[in-house]
Design a protein that fits this description.
Layout (H helix, E strand, L loop, with lengths): L4 H13 L2 H12 L4 H6 L1
């Protein structure tokens, strides 16, 4: 099954716009040590 072209554009947009989340999670994990599950739920 092939995705429509606009779906690919939307996927790229979401990846670009959410790139900061991994960095934010990493920095937050340094402050809130040992609570990965809690961070995932936030």
């Amino acid at each position: 099954m092939q995705k429509p072209a606009n779906m690919d554009a939307l996927t790229d947009f979401i990846k670009t716009e959410s790139a900061f989340l991994e960095k934010l999670r990493s920095v937050t994990a340094n402050v809130i040590v040992g609570q990965e599950q809690m961070l995932d739920r936030l």
